[in-house]
Amino acid sequence: MHINETHDPSLTSWVATANDPASDFPIQNLPFAVFRRAGSTETFRGGVAIGDQVLDLAALDPATVGEPASAALALAQRDTLNDFMAAGPAAWSALRLALSRLLRAGAAAQQHALVPQAAAEFSIPARIGDYTDFYTSIHHATSVGRLFRPDEPLLPNYKWVPIGYHGRASSIGVSGQRFPRPKGQTRPASGTDAPNFGPSRRLDYELEVGIFVGTGNADGDAIPVDAAEAHVFGLCLLNDWSARDLQAWEYQPLGPFLAKNFATTISPWIVTLEALAPYRAPWQRDAADPQPLPYLDYPALREAGAFDVELEVLLQTATMRREGQQAASVSRSNFRDSYWSVAQMVAHHTVNGCGLRPGDLLGSGTQSGPEPEAAGSLLELSGGGKAAITLPNGEQRTFLEDGDTVVLRGRAVRPGLPRIGFGEAAGTVLPAR
Amino acid sequence: MHINETHDPSLTSWVATANDPASDFPIQNLPFAVFRRAGSTETFRGGVAIGDQVLDLAALDPATVGEPASAALALAQRDTLNDFMAAGPAAWSALRLALSRLLRAGAAAQQHALVPQAAAEFSIPARIGDYTDFYTSIHHATSVGRLFRPDEPLLPNYKWVPIGYHGRASSIGVSGQRFPRPKGQTRPASGTDAPNFGPSRRLDYELEVGIFVGTGNADGDAIPVDAAEAHVFGLCLLNDWSARDLQAWEYQPLGPFLAKNFATTISPWIVTLEALAPYRAPWQRDAADPQPLPYLDYPALREAGAFDVELEVLLQTATMRREGQQAASVSRSNFRDSYWSVAQMVAHHTVNGCGLRPGDLLGSGTQSGPEPEAAGSLLELSGGGKAAITLPNGEQRTFLEDGDTVVLRGRAVRPGLPRIGFGEAAGTVLPAR
């Protein structure tokens, strides 16, 4: 993706908070969400983050942005972003350019179109027709595999197939999601036949990147890997909550089901691929790793197939919340360490003719880094529940407890460029019903 | 479910073809679909099958059906049945009763509201938010398991957990669906590392029953098993097309993905649970089988937990079609042989708090009977591709070839009662692109 005037690091905004180097939302970012004023009965509509404000797209006169952006603006004003996503890269780019010019220092301030983020509530940004979860971190696959199969941590298909499976769309919630601890069957105790039943005792988070499909493909037509990124609208944060004890008992032979489908939390903000263009990274491969099959290989892959996005998990227990302590960092990793790229996920998903639709969501799978402390789940950090981690206030965790809030954060950072942040995806575990 | 006047076997209709004992659609059936005149640009709307006709619900004046059915009629006139499904059993029942009275011999004929089924085209009857596929036939699970694990055909969780996994909603099509043979990776030849890539060589059908959710549940709230059937709108036929060679290579550790998500074909007609009430059957269990856990057990299960629905697979090759030969029967089974019931699928799906929505679709999994010739897939009928089956014209099949059309049929039959049919779910394999 070409770098254009919207990426110019010298740009500043008339929204002063966007010029704070610590802000997730400088004028070079411009991520999209769907929002309304919190507690109101207003219609949800598209918004763009700028500093600590939301630019209310429905409050903008189309004449303000001019052609060709006004048609894109009309689509982005709706109560989901699906139609805007379906409009394709030229429309996304035209609106980004117009909003960049509108928000720049020197342009006429549009105070009437700003809503403080702190006064907004968000909805899922798109009607998600289908949700697919991948498994692209080789570090996660290896460390989880080692817990179950010490002799063969990584299965023979891993370096050939971008492994994925279908998840549940209806239980995806936006940051702030709260859900009861899931109940279900778990493996029988040794020497007994009957499984146990009750609330999960091994409830976990998974640190993932979400990928929103923009333009789809016709059923039966594969998307070539070198055209795949043009079908991607942008990235968000995604917590694929997982009940490890339910999963261990149910997952053979058809994969995870009740262990995953009770809740999935995403960030409200979708950072576009265009915003991320200056933050690309080389693809991570060892010399001994096989070349991908031709349908997964493309020239730009090796130089810039990955995204350099720092990811972080933070945890706030009920005790910490009661005592006024902020969420504590538990681990950090980076999306650039993914074994499979975004373009490869899209190409693989459609190689059999499967149709993707605007607003479909792909999860990257848990993003764990190469170091043990960069693991994206408690399962890994606790060595399968054997070694508790200790929080700054002295509390310990092997898995999540009732009242725990997990916060995911992400940011693209590059020397000489402003930081491009993802906001956060926060979710809270309630007691089992 | 109580038997009421709509089930009276002596009822006949002023639509003469409904009174033919060979019709799938006597007045006791009254299944719902969404249709329009074929080749037209009319709006799709709800319809009910009667003999060889569709009763066009949008052509009925609400006053014709009176209260309380008129409100239900208004919902069933829309271009998907989701809102009607959400209205619940009282609404479904009220409309069924009103339509039964409207269509009875002696009532004023409403010829203006009839469209010949042969002149209609159908759409997916509901907007399917999520599609879940189960694995409820112990005969299928055992015979497929034996191909992979001769020592342990049935996994230890099978008799405790109604195994299910998430499928792809966007690739579900209505009867008449045509799709290219899927391409993908298959297991490396012995002694080599790199997988093969190309069109699937082991393309198969799966004979399943589809279950449409009517009323949903709030996220976090489980549906008790003894209340579960009130959440089910009705049943249809479902072909879960499967590429066995893609599946064998991709499915570890997270389950089937590209092997399934290229196409799934359902019948246009949904037969309501109320229509099926006289055709219930005892639950099938051996004395040695364990009692289900309490959340899966309910008093009515043993006497009438199952549905006595005969299922059949027919195959028409391109040669047969060219030579004017009808599709030939390949195998027959019965939904009553399912190990897990419809109510148990719903209770299990929601026990962790997963929310179901009106219009969600559950697949029963391949329904194979206890006899080898009652297998619901070619994988089983051909012993894993080792022994071809021979069709009446002498052609042989281990797996499907290009141009093959697979037709599923189903019917509930009971002495002294009219036959209640499901119509058909037909789909055709096109050459790979």
TrEMBL record, chains A, B:
Signal peptide: none annotated. Keywords: Calcium, Hydrolase, Magnesium, Metal-binding, Phenylalanine catabolism, Tyrosine catabolism. Its EC number is 3.7.1.2. The keyword Magnesium applies. Residues 173-197 are annotated as: Disordered. It is an enzyme of class 3 (hydrolase). It comes from the Bacteria. Its cofactor is Mg(2+); Ca(2+). One of its GO terms (biological process) is L-tyrosine catabolic process. GO terms for molecular function: fumarylacetoacetase activity; metal ion binding. The active site is at H140 (proton acceptor). Residues 135-428 form the Fumarylacetoacetase-like C-terminal domain. Pathway: Amino-acid degradation; L-phenylalanine degradation; acetoacetate and fumarate from L-phenylalanine: step 6/6. Mg(2+) binds at D240, K260, T264. Ca(2+) binds at D133, E206, E208, D240. NCBIfam families: fum_ac_acetase. This is fumarylacetoacetase. It comes from Pseudoduganella lutea.
